[in-house]
Design goal:
7-stranded mixed sheet, 3-stranded antiparallel sheet, 172 residues, Jelly Rolls, globular, alpha+beta
């Protein structure tokens, strides 16, 4: 694999094999990243119609609430645990999906076929998923919630702490 940007890797072979060693490289990149995440895309370029990625989020990663317009998204959990938080358009939590690998007692797979705002809250040292969505990559098909701060905004950490609290309250 080759690194094309901070935390972003692409295959360098036409037949892609993802090994434990590859995932360890992605984990190390996520741990070193200010964004606390990294991904290995197994599609060869952003213009492909099918996008498959192995994504690692480390504890403390802030995934700004967003939705995908006209695209589905699925997660298959390999390691760790997290909650996928689903919001209404006003930013209220409407669903919490406790995710974890098979055998963890949590949901090992989900697919979102609709355009709901969502985020990910990591509850382990790291959370590794195989994500699938449709391409080609077009930033206009991802809408960030205007009621949430951007990742680099000074209030992002405060918002993330509040989101953790709200998710626990929602869980009951």
């Amino acid at each position: 694999m080759k690194q094309v940007a901070e935390g972003l890797f692409y295959p360098d072979q036409p037949i892609v094999r993802v090994t434990a060693g590859d995932l360890a490289v992605i984990l190390a990149a996520a741990e070193a990243s200010p964004r606390k995440r990294a991904r290995l895309c197994v599609h060869s370029d952003p213009q492909e119609l099918m996008h498959e990625m192995f994504i690692v989020h480390v504890a403390g990663a802030y995934v700004r609430p967003h939705r995908h317009l006209g695209r589905a998204e699925s997660f298959h959990v390999l390691e760790g645990k997290a909650d996928v938080v689903v919001f209404d358009d006003a930013g209220r939590i409407v669903e919490l999906i406790p995710m974890g690998p098979l055998g963890s007692g949590r949901v090992p797979f989900y697919r979102m076929n609709c355009s709901h705002f969502h985020s990910v809250l990591v509850h382990a040292p790291y959370f590794t998923v195989h994500e699938t969505t449709t391409g080609p990559l077009d930033p206009k098909t991802t809408e960030f919630a205007d009621w949430s701060p951007a990742e680099d905004h000074p209030q992002a950490a405060h918002y993330a702490i509040g989101l953790l609290r709200d998710a626990e309250y929602f869980r009951g």
